[in-house]
Amino acid sequence: MPLIATAALFFLIGFVTWLNGPLISFVRVAFSLSDIEAFLIPLVFYLSYLLFALPAGKLAQRTGLKRGFAIALAIMGIGGAFFGQFIACRFYPGALGALMVLGAGLTLLQVSVNPYISLLGPHDRAAQRIAIMGLCNKFAGILAPIVLATVVMHDIGNVAVHAAQAATPAERDAILGSFAQGIYWPYLSMALVLVIAAGIVMLSPLPDFGTGGLTEAGFSFTPRLCGGILATFAYVGIEVLAGDAIGTYGQGFGLPLDETRFFTAFTLAAMMLGYGVGLLVVPRFLSQERCMFLSCSLGILLSITAFCTQGYVSVLCVALLGLANAMIMPALFPMAIRHAGSHTPVASALLVMAFSGGAFTPQIFVFLKSYIGFQATFAGLAVLSYGVVLSYAHRFADETF
Hints:
Blueprint (H helix, E strand, L loop, with lengths): L1 H16 L2 H11 L4 H4 L1 H24 L1 H24 L3 H27 L7 H26 L4 H9 L4 H13 L2 H20 L19 H22 L1 H6 L5 H4 L2 H19 L6 H21 L2 H9 L1 H5 L2 H10 L6 H10 L3 H16 L1 H23 L5
């Protein structure tokens, strides 16, 4: 029962998180933004992890994991409702603020749920359990961009053309305003689901694990934890880049908006396939550490191939990074918090803070691509990120490669 309930929470996390990819294209059209302005969406969302992870950890310690889950879902619901309202009103700063509220709730949920699933059973099968959660997360992630692209962005290409050809500013604003209104009811519905889920969690028999030790004296930044924080920062950066920026990457080849709006779903489908493979082979045929090593190596190979090819082939290589990414976090997270003992909650909070890599890596991408090209920028960031994780795997894995 705890596994099923936790899987449902991971589904909600995935649905909310992976809306950001198509949202970048949506706000670029609805608000007539540059790439740098549109990529404020992942910047603000993942910056929440950096700002709120430690306060969220303290709150989880005080309330317990079960109440922490419920509070997190309620905060996410509030943030989602305000985000839809501000987008519909075409007030971009307000929408970004609401997205940060949603991210704050998600941070609390991540701080609580990641150690929860890691502690549900033996360490050597932690990656297997997290892979199950990843399947739920990425299945939701596949649905999220498809739902948004179909329900809200089904005519985005024509909207962009008609807005550009509008005879007057008033006509142009009317076109874009009508387009932006389409997001209101989907986000309000999602907010309602999140609030209902909060109530269900509170009434459920979901057990609490102990959360003591967050502020206990004696905590130290061990090399294992520090390296894990750096590796997590690098990994989440490239995971978000491969998922959220793939549409922008495809547009760099001149591919139409009506196609690129679905590209995030392709990356997540590849991740889902990777989780399925991970469930079959870890730990039966491969240890979780060796699987992470092979995943990083595949990521480097695909990144170089994406740089050396063009068009749909290059985009396919970027999407297949999802396959490479799938089994990195399931091995990385338990590896980093191993031996933390009573300090596991604060170690978890620090690792969740490192999820802010998803805020900075995409911004670096949109800034540098104007100078050295989008393919070279993407490949350089990807190879560097996988190299960092690979180095950590060599240093702290329980076996020698």
